[in-house]
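quick one, 640 residues, struct below
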Amino acid sequence: MKKILQLTAYYLMVILYLEIGHSYFLYQNVFHIGLLYLSIFSIFISLILAVLSSLGHEKTNRITIGIITVLLSLIFAGNYLYTTLFSVPFTIYVTQMASQAMDFTNVIFLTIIEHLHPLWIFLVPILFYILCFKKIRIPHIYFYEKKIALESIIAVYILSLLIMIPNMHESKSAFQLYWKDNDLISAIDKLGLLTAEMIDINRAIFGFEQDIVLMPHIPGQENAEVEYNKMDIDFEKLKNEETDNYLKSLYTYFNEEMPTNKNEYTGKYQGKNLIFILAESFNTIAISQELTPTLYQLTNSGFHFTNFYSPVFLSTTGGEFQSMTGLVPSAETLSAWYKGTVYLPFSLGNAFGKQNYTANAYHNWTNMYYNRDKTMPTLGFDNFLSCESGLEERIKCVWEGYEVPSDKEMIDTTIADYAEKTPFVSFYITVSGHMPYYFSDRKRNYDAVKDLPYSEKVKGYLQTQIDLDKALESLINQLKEKNILDDTVICLVGDHYPYALSVDEINELSNYPRDGLFEINHSDLIIWNNDTEKIEIDKVGSQIDVLPTLLNLFGIEYDSRLMIGHDILSDTEGLAIFSDLSWISDSGSYVSKTKQFTPTKEVSEDYVTNKNQWVNNSVVISKRIIEQDVYRKIFSREEE
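---
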């Protein structure tokens, strides 16, 4: 048994080394209460690995130890690389997305090169094992020792559970994250990567449903003199006819949720055309009167949203999902959405299609990326062109080195598809702004940035946004030539901030210092029409608010209770939710990791508690809507 304990100590040393390195390099956060929980669970995992490494003969056990050491190092190195690329940790639900990411092999290779130092740190245990191969004591468990080993594992596991009890009722406590909350980022912070991933795998195999907590507000607060964006849906009837308890709680929640009010902007653009652009890595820092004059024009006329955020949720696909559905993405939610079987009545293509709009979508990269060949029809875009599905016959669809397909080419060769088929809604997903940003290796717009006083990657980023700007300039000119500019609204939102740039690099362009949590995600939402004077909106908003805002502006019927996002132009308090469940509202900001709320105005005593619960509910409800195809259930029963 002594040798088992020595091997346990070896694994514990390796795991703690990797866990601490992972926490430091990704979050710059090591010494906090989570280290206690992490250590206890690491003992539990180490003991199991020690036993598994002792079941065979000495030669077999030595090979097993080596394999486990390599796997541990690769798990941490792989998660570090994935999180660096996508700004969220790897989860079992995004294995499909991870495989598709291999389309960007040059980006992955460059990311590895840029992060060689931490990656080498994660590989040190392998080197240690090789150097100490002959010195590691290789035990063999005899029959009488198996009972002792099993009892030891159970005892350590019980201990790890007991230490979570004192703070079990606290929000985001280790207990809540282990048993009740589905928050992988917080779980990694509190319990360690290995334990969090074990929880994730367990829930993926056996299923997991987080409860919806009904908010302490009184139903029926609506003012009879106010018009709301709501539909005549009998949620009480739906609840009474439903046998699934989770759906019952969902219908109760919808029934008690306050709808958003119609307002002075409701129907402002009714009947006009809409061109929606999801712009790769677009951010406020790209707006310049000299370099990107069209972006400058669009953000200084029409609607100007000064407190808009584009939080990163699983890269481009998260931004796309938010802006197209008004829901909060998660790995589980997106995994279900990728199947292409969900009914989304309020998405742009579907909602506008019901108003007899021609609906087209375009993307100047592969149609298989993020399963867009399946998700586009669920959004109502049956006419979807991308590289590998027809667009390659019109534009140069080759990713050559660091030169990606051009946004301008895509728009120039597709506008004829819909310009004569009014009214239309057209959805573009651009790719010009994609990393990596090495301006010296990109020919496009090289001369425009070569003499600027910025670092190389910053200049490279500006090169990509100049191409977006030229695409917009060409789009506006062609709409004008076809005499439909005044009858067309352009909406542009970034999918996420340019996360290939560091905070310091972003601050080279920012007109104020940005932090690495909130302000790094601060961006712009463009809703522009040639006849609209500048309208400044200082309410907090984010990508989930884009869809309901557009539906209200175009006077299209929808039920605001069935979306997490709100019309930014309504009187509902603004809120932006981030991937770690931190948030910013019109009343202040909350950091989930530190549980610190910084108010900007006076709030009630239970404001933060209620807002946290609403944020948690938002993730759960979004997941349930997609996984259980709730919209289809609601509207099919309503039609009966």
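Residues 34 and 189 are 6 Å apart (CA to CA).
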